[in-house]
């Protein structure tokens, strides 16, 4: 799963026994060489949809990590792009990398649950970060996103369909979540990363309650499941004008 440039098993163990913030600070120099980075195929597919629905003026990458999503925003935003993350280490790596062509980019260290912005963005995106939020935190998280969007603004993120119950993928996710729950019951500080906690039905309900109108865009590049439903969707949540 990991390239030779990625973290060793020992490094991963140390990171897993840290807090989420400290763990990502430690992982940051090698993060782009792990499976945790959003694949380019997903970034490209999301960018294609956003180019059709845009252009946008100002964009925010929520939980930006080392900045892969910022490159997507740079291709669809005209005025400025901001990446926000609570890991100083991840932001340091993002700053060091060559900036994408396009509008000016700024990097801000902050918690997604307490964003330090007013309603100044037209588009917010996020890639692969929601496993770090417990289901009870979704209302507050979505309220924060709404608070930084201008009227008519959009919140977009890809969502992978869950594996079929009883499949190897399903058992893998269940096993991972079980290990994390045991770890958090026995060790402090907790490391919140649960891959089975972000379900489409719950997400749509919480977005609607936060005042968003939700649209789903299939990403055909990733095919369909046996029941005909898309394997990957782009959730587009829009605010009224």
Report on this model:
This protein has 241 residues and is of the alpha/beta class. It has helices at residues 9-16, 20-27, 40-53, 68-74, 88-96, 138-148, 168-186, 200-209, and strands spanning 56-62, 77-85, 105-109, 121-126, 149-160, 213-218, 232-238. The protein is globular. The mean pLDDT is 86. It folds into 3 domains: 1-37, no CATH class; 39-160 and 200-238, Rossmann fold (3-Layer(aba) Sandwich), CATH 3.40.50.150; 163-198, no CATH class.
Quickly name the level 1 CATH class of the largest domain. Alpha Beta
- Rounded radius of gyration (Å): 17 Å
Name the beta content range.
Answer: 15-25%
**Residue-averaged pLDDT:** 86
Largest sheet: 7 strands, mixed
Cα(first) to Cα(last) distance is: 44 Å
Count of DSSP H/I helices: 8
Helix content: 25-40%
Total tally of structural domains: 3
Rough shape?
globular
Low-confidence stretches: none
Fourth-tier CATH superfamily name of the largest domain: Vaccinia Virus protein VP39
Count the beta strands.
7
| H and E string | HHHEHEHEEHEHHEE
CATH topology name of the largest domain, in short, is Rossmann fold
Biggest sheet strand line-up: 3-2-1-4-5-7-6
């Amino acid at each position: 799963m990991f390239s030779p440039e990625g973290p060793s098993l020992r490094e991963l163990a140390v990171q897993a026994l840290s807090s989420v913030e400290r763990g990502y600070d430690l992982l940051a120099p090698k993060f782009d060489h792990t499976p945790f980075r959003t694949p380019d195929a997903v970034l490209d597919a999301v960018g294609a949809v956003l180019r059709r629905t845009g252009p946008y003026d100002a964009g925010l990458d929520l939980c930006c990590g080392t900045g892969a999503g910022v490159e997507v925003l740079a291709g669809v935003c005209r005025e400025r792009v901001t990446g926000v993350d609570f890991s100083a280490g991840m932001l340091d790596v993002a700053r060091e990398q060559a900036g994408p062509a396009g509008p000016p980019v700024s990097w801000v260290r902050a918690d997604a649950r307490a964003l330090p912005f007013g309603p100044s963005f037209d588009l917010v995106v996020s890639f692969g970060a929601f496993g770090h939020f417990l289901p009870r935190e979704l209302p507050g998280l979505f309220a924060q996103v709404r608070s930084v969007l201008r009227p008519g603004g959009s919140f977009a993120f890809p969502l992978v369909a869950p594996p079929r119950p009883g499949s190897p993928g399903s058992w893998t996710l269940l096993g991972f979540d079980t290990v994390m729950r045991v770890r958090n019951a026995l060790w402090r500080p907790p490391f919140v990363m649960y891959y089975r906690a972000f379900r489409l039905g719950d997400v749509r309900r919480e977005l609607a309650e936060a005042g968003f109108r939700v649209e789903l865009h299939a990403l055909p590049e990733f095919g369909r499941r046996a029941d005909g439903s898309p394997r990957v969707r782009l959730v587009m949540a829009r605010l009224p004008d």
